[in-house]
């Protein structure tokens, strides 16, 4: 029997509330709030026609010029990503706290003794938890984000149809939900690489800490940054900004998608090219441009090293 898929299923069933229901509920709540906002506006308008620039929705699609259509398309794409982004934000917290408690909780409730009695190595156990954090949870959350974005466009289509507009031309003909969904899925390998140092650090702390892993995982990097900042003020070192950006942030914030954008040296060039639109930032060229950054691979190597340390520490903690 292949043990690794069994371990992945174990992680999913034990943490299904965080893996699946937390991002799903976040998506459902934001769609519900959007629906409530629409109903409030309908009541306030009392069934009147909705006009944009003095034109009713029914006649709007026939009078829009190319620039107006492009602006409307960008607005729809931005709204689609923003609404779906709530599931991804919840995912960031789920991955953080799951990785932080993955090995610590096994020792705290002594369930590690049961798993130690099975023919399952420490390496496979830790790798199953790392894979759950880096692959399974992001894949589920991204799927929910895409569905939430489609849900928003369905609501917008209903609002447009109620007021005499054609949703196929004013919504689906302008927005790019399928492309956004595909680009989000394509960005998952880059997310994996950028989340590796944070997940590796959290698993290492989870395997090492005897109590209060959250304090160790967060305060140790932060206090180290404060110490480096103090040395900078004393003139011992030139600046503490590098340490905060490349050590503290990479150890604590890597579970948030899009972190690589803050490390890119070409954002100004992208803005000059007009690539800071939703489709520009999510494009394959922009996304996989992160693979040419040394920060990506240095952080990934550090994450792999810390996961290896978590394997060693788990064995040592259990035997000690």
UniProtKB/TrEMBL annotation:
Residue ranges crossing the lipid bilayer per the database entry: 20-41, 83-104, 133-160, 180-204, 216-237, 296-313
Record key words, sorted: Membrane, Transmembrane, Transmembrane helix
Protein name stated in the entry: ABC transporter permease
Coiled coil: none
Species per Swiss-Prot/TrEMBL record: Coralloluteibacterium thermophilum
